[in-house]
Here is the input.
Amino acid sequence: MNLNKQMLATIILLLATMSHALGHVTGGKLQNFQYNAELAPVAPIVDGYLDDLVWERAIPGKLEQNLISGERWNPSSDFTGSFAAVWRNGFLYIAIKLVDDQLETRQTKLLREDHLLLYVDPHHSGRKEDLYRYEIRIGKETGTLKAPLTRVAWGNDGQTCELSFRLDNLARKGNSIGFSIAYNDVDSGNLQHKITWGPEGYTEETDYLADLVFTAKIEPNRQQKLIQWGRIKSLY
Ligand SMILES: [Ca+2]
Ligand SMILES: [Ca+2]
Ligand SMILES: [Ca+2]
Here is the structure.
């Protein structure tokens, strides 16, 4: 090995060791972390109650990553949370289930209240930009909604929630958007935890967003035909 090759090998080794030593979640690690939102045969009714058939079938994503410590969060009565997402006719629908031992919703400042923090990045920039951030107060449906968020509905005293985002042709089979969902848990007047859906090691400093991918096991047209056939059959 001549000197140049030796130097090059040393540099490569150093770089490899450095990136490993940093230990942060990088875009690379997030590549394998995604939520598949499946095409729904019928859109859910955005009323805050998760009794729609699509939510029974959707696979939940769990909020079990502590954004402050970077460690896994064990679901407990202190906080347990999950979400599911489906799409239909240009809309993304999100269902959320929350358990929180002390619900704090009567403060004037958002920081002193339990709230959800979502990022929906239709342009798939992959980064946490303010433009894509949605702060959702528990149990509250009033106020102007920032596009493309079109509706927020709560049920079961703030334990269930449904949201809809109008994404038009971005909600199509195979397309990906940036996505994140976290819960800021305020108990006894102080912020206790920030729990998110994310890979191990993911913290507040992680600038990258995971992917939400629009999937469809059956082609939309074929599925629509099947539904129509079901309707026809039910007439007899
Ligand atoms: Ca519903
Ligand atoms: Ca709590
Ligand atoms: Ca709380």
